[in-house]
Amino acid sequence: MDAVFHENLSPFEFFKTIESFYKYYENDFEKDKQSMFEKIKNMLNLYPVIIILTGTPQDPYCGYSKTFIEIINKLEIRYKSYDILKNDNLRGWLRVYTGWKTFPQLYINGKIIGGCDTLKDLVKENKIMDMIPEECSRKGAIKELNKILSINEIVLFGEVNIVYIY
Prior knowledge:
6 helices; Glutaredoxin; four-stranded mixed β-sheet; elongated
């Protein structure tokens, strides 16, 4: 949107110019907000337990993320993670979406649970495992494995590497 400000604009003309900018950016903001909220919602619903941290589980960027990952690993929870440092736009919108300003963050079934201190408190109060969906717990993994073993005579375990050729 192009606008030219002149010293000789009347207060009314000045106000109208400012108002047109406001309406333009307000509309743009709402479109961006709706789009990002939809992307965030989809991302958080990809897996029952999502952790968003600074860095990766193998290489956390800060002390909070390192402590967070150590706690999660001790609990033997299966999760998907996202390095929030990879996307400034997502980082900003996620704060608006949840109202939670710091990272790392724990999400269960698409809902924010909290950060490192919240996770510590839930562990201390023995409440965290009651919140974790069974399929993401060690107990759920063992149950799934026993089911596979009970219905199959031969089970082959291994790592699958997929190679894409372009």
